[in-house]
Design a protein that fits this description.
The complex is a heterodimer. Chain A has ten helices and 14 strands. Chain A has helices at residues 43-50, 91-101, 106-119, 135-147, 165-180, 192-198, 216-223, 237-247, 274-284, 297-307, and strands spanning 3-14, 17-28, 32-36, 58-63, 66-67, 76-79, 153-157, 184-188, 201-206, 209-215, 227-233, 249-252, 262-267, 286-292. Chain A has a six-stranded mixed β-sheet, sandwiched between helices. A four-stranded antiparallel β-sheet of chain A has the order 2-1-4-5, covered by helices on one side. In chain A, helix 2 (91-101) crosses helix 3 and helix 2 runs parallel beside helix 4 (135-147). The radius of gyration of chain A is 24 Å and the shape is elongated. Chain B is built from 17 helices and six strands. Chain B has helices at 4-17, 19-48, 82-91, 123-144, 149-154, 173-210, 214-218, 223-260, 264-267, 269-280, 286-296, 299-327, 335-358, 363-368, 375-382, 389-417, 427-433; strands at residues 51-57, 72-77, 96-100, 113-117, 163-164, 170-171. In chain B, strand 5 (163-164) and strand 6 (170-171) form a beta hairpin. In chain B, helix 12 (299-327) packs antiparallel against helix 15. The longest helix of chain B has 38 residues, at 173-210. Chain B starts with a helix and ends with a helix. The chains are: A alpha/beta, B alpha/beta. The interface between A and B is medium-sized, with 30 and 24 residues. Chain A: Belongs to the ABC transporter superfamily. Chain A: Residues 5-232 form the ABC transporter domain. Chain A: InterPro entries: AAA+_ATPase, ABC_transporter-like_ATP-bd, ABC_transporter-like_CS, ABC_transporter_ATP-binding, DrrA1/2-like_C, P-loop_NTPase. Chain A: This is ABC transporter ATP-binding protein.
Chain lengths: 308, 436
């Protein structure tokens, strides 16, 4: 499948401050794309460029094989990090207005809103004012408004902030469902566990530059250190440990088990295979634990940012 | 996609349905009318309050000129000393005592005239008594020199200069006053409109910023469209309010003056000017001459110029108000930016009311009717006095060019400002935004 969205060499300066420096990303059709980076890295600027809120100084964006144009507004649903609603407007009126701005007819918007209100248990909210709702309730309204026009591209900037765990799961499931129905999702967040859970592609932006991107699995492979976490019960632990540190790079570790075995992280050298380690271990005692350490998104994030 | 109508509709209806807007719309004319009625009523009471003034005339020559009037009663005291008269006046609770001493020569009669009262007397009363005395004493002096008063009286003449322009158009004082009222009303209306609804636009921009909905909106709409929609929607709400005010005000005015029989027209300054002018020029029917003066106004020109200058001037200022709203986070930060906007506006009104009245085609009024930030108000005030079309056109072109520039400028500030939170921007920051 091709890319729904491509940004090519996008740069943006605000006065002397460079917000984006030659950033390119490819967002594959039907993926959930994690846009990661520390605060102030330039994620929001990139998202605003995609939304045509900010015009880039150079570079261009392609959506659905076309250069970004005015009419693409209706193909994008955007939930900004700084979000809110008109406080004194009624929920229904407001949702209708925002949907119409995205190009839906009033009748169509009304129909779809009825469906969504029903789906997210918001039946009697239509005539309530936003200021009467809790923060989480307002977030639900906002989510609906973002997805109502069934855009091809959904952009969520920190979508889970302000949700209680139950609603967060509800929204997460809705995002996954929308992806399954064909939408492509760009997902900007600091919460690495949700990246791990949802994203299949990521790009990491740091100090206005993209420093990493690709499939999450590929990146993990790239960042893995050939390290294994092992647990072994041996009769002579001391001898085993000396022997291990002669053959491999060993660091202490701890994890929860039922027994009281020797627990170590073992990094393999280039010419060593996991089987070498395993057969060595089985010859020395009873192996109770043998796991390859796969870097978490969090590890990758921290390491990539540090390396730059 | 053109969302302008949608935005205008939302802005209009949220304004019009707003509770405080509705209350303001209904209450303001009532309060205004009530105020006018109270003022009119009070001045009537003041006029009607009866005063009794005692007169002790030792010369015996003066007291006959003081005739009882509607609200002043004169009592002539006789055969008592000044001290006794004072005590009597005080114990009877009368307003005051006019004492005229026994003068030997009319020439220095005024040295013998005194007025005693408990509090300092009303200036109008003193003036009235003075003018009566002056007239009477002058007559006495003339008589003592053997002049026939009747002859003088019969040869007194009043003159009303009939004014006519070179084009052969007759004008009168009433005409000038009608022009003044029209020009002044138009200029002042624009001034009020800009201040009231400019502020409303500004608040509505700030509201979008503080409620953080702005980013959602501008991901669907161009900021320029949003800004224009806001300005137009709010202005339409303003026009609605104004029309309701005028209708409601007119209605209430008629009802109240009907019920209380108070002539509110007389209480207003323009009404006083008019009635004064009519007595000066001995025109019997004020209403008729006002209507005549009204028809003599360059009406078509007035209406067109009013619409054009009003719209262009209003848009010029309101775009700046929108830009200010975008630049700040809350209303308290707006003061330093509002000041430079209000300055030319207030200046325009002052120039209008002082120099245009003095000389509608003088250098200062003419210059300021070309400067774009003052021209809408000053020009609107000048037009009833007849401004050459080329001047109006040039002024309008300058105004529209400036208006296009300020809208562009405001849109730049708006576009960047609506996404800026936190620090209150300085003028330098704002200038930088234009380059973004």
């Amino acid at each position: 499948m091709g890319n729904l969205l491509e940004a090519h060499n996008v740069s943006k300066k605000f006065g002397n401050y460079t917000a984006l420096n030659n950033v390119s990303i490819d967002v594959p059709q039907g993926s959930i794309f994690g846009l990661l980076g520390p605060n102030g890295a330039g994620k929001t600027t990139l998202i605003r460029v995609i939304n045509q809120i900010t015009m880039p100084d150079s570079g261009h964006v392609i959506l659905d094989n076309q250069p970004l144009q005015n009419h693409h507004v209706k193909d994008i649903g955007y939930l900004p990090e700084e979000r809110g609603l008109y406080k004194s407007m009624k929920v229904g009126e407001q949702a209708l207005y925002l949907a119409q701005l995205k190009g839906l007819s009033k009748a169509e918007a009304r129909k779809r809103l009825a469906y969504w209100f029903d789906r997210l248990d918001m039946g009697d909210w239509w005539n309530k004012k936003i200021q009467e709702l809790s923060k989480g309730m307002a977030q639900k309204v906002q989510f609906i408004v973002t997805v109502l026009h069934e855009p091809k591209l959904l952009i969520f900037d920190e979508p889970f902030s302000g949700f209680d765990p139950i609603n967060a799961i509800l929204i997460k499931d809705e995002i996954l469902r929308l992806r399954d129905e064909g939408a492509t999702v760009i997902f900007s967040t600091h919460r690495m566990e949700s990246v791990e859970e949802l994203c299949d592609h990521i790009a990491l932006i740091h100090q206005s530059n993209k420093i990493l991107d690709g499939k999450l699995i590929d990146i993990k492979k790239q960042f893995k250190t050939n390290t294994f976490e092992i647990g072994i019960r041996a009769t002579n632990e001391l001898a085993l440990e000396i022997e291990l540190s002669e053959k491999f790079t060993v660091t202490p570790t701890s994890f929860k088990t039922l027994g009281n075995e020797l627990k170590r992280n073992i990094k393999l050298a280039e010419n060593q295979s996991p089987n070498d380690l395993l057969s060595f271990l089985t010859s020395r005692g009873e192996v109770s634990h043998f796991v390859e350490i796969i870097p978490t998104a969090n590890d990758i994030f921290i390491q990539a940012v540090k390396n730059n | 996609m053109n969302h302008l109508p949608l935005i205008i509709k939302r802005e209009y209806f949220t304004k019009v349905k707003n509770k405080s807007f509705i209350i303001m719309t209904v209450l303001s004319p009532m309060i205004m009318i009530a105020l006018i009625a109270v003022v009119a009523y009070l001045s009537q009471i003041n006029k009607n309050s009866e005063r009794t003034i005692a007169i002790l005339d030792e010369s015996g020559l003066v007291s006959p000129i003081f005739q009882n009037s509607e609200n002043t009663e004169y009592i002539v005291l006789e055969n008592m000393s000044l001290e006794a008269a004072k005590t009597l006046t005080e114990t009877q609770g009368n307003y005051g005592l006019l004492y005229i001493g026994k003068f030997t020569d009319v020439k220095d009669a005024d040295k013998f005239i005194k007025f005693y009262s408990e509090e300092s007397p009303s200036i109008t009363l003193i003036n009235r008594m003075e003018s009566k005395l002056e007239k009477h004493l002058t007559d006495l002096k003339l008589e003592s020199q053997g002049v026939d008063i009747e002859k003088i009286k019969s040869s007194e003449t009043r003159v009303t200069i009939t004014q006519e322009s070179f084009m052969g158009q007759k004008t009168s004082k009433i005409d000038s006053i009608v022009k003044l009222v029209f020009g002044g009303a138009a200029g002042y209306l624009l001034f009020m409109f800009i201040i009231i609804y400019g502020n409303m636009i500004m608040r509505s921009v700030i509201e979008e910023k503080t409620s953080r909905i702005i980013e959602i909106i501008i991901s669907s709409v161009k900021p320029m469209q949003l800004m224009l929609g806001k300005i137009i929607g709010t202005s339409l709400a303003g026009v609605t309010q104004f029309v309701i005010w005028i209708i409601l005000g007119g209605l209430l005015l008629t009802i109240i003056s009907g019920i209380f029989g108070i002539n509110l027209m007389e209480a207003s300054p323009s009404g006083q000017l008019l009635s004064q002018a009519s007595t000066d020029s001995n025109i019997p029917d004020v209403a008729q001459s006002v209507i005549m003066a009204f028809y003599k106004l360059p009406l078509t020109n007035l209406i067109f110029a009013f619409l054009l200058f009003f719209i262009a001037g209003y848009l010029l200022y309101s775009s700046l108000y929108a830009a200010i709203g975008a630049a700040v986070d809350n209303e308290t930060d707006t003061q330093q930016f509002l000041f430079p906007i209000l300055m030319p506006l207030i200046l325009a009104v002052y120039i209008g009311f002082f120099t245009v009245i003095e000389n509608p085609h003088g250098t200062i009024s003419t210059i300021f009717s070309f400067i774009p930030f003052t021209s809408p108000v000053v020009m609107l005030m000048r037009i009833p006095f007849g401004v050459p079309i080329w001047q109006q056109v040039v002024s309008l072109i300058i105004l529209i060019a400036t208006f296009i520039f300020t809208v562009w400028f405001a849109a730049k500030i708006y576009r960047v400002g609506i996404l800026m939170y936190g620090k209150k921007p300085s003028y330098r920051d704002i200038l930088k935004w234009i380059k973004y």
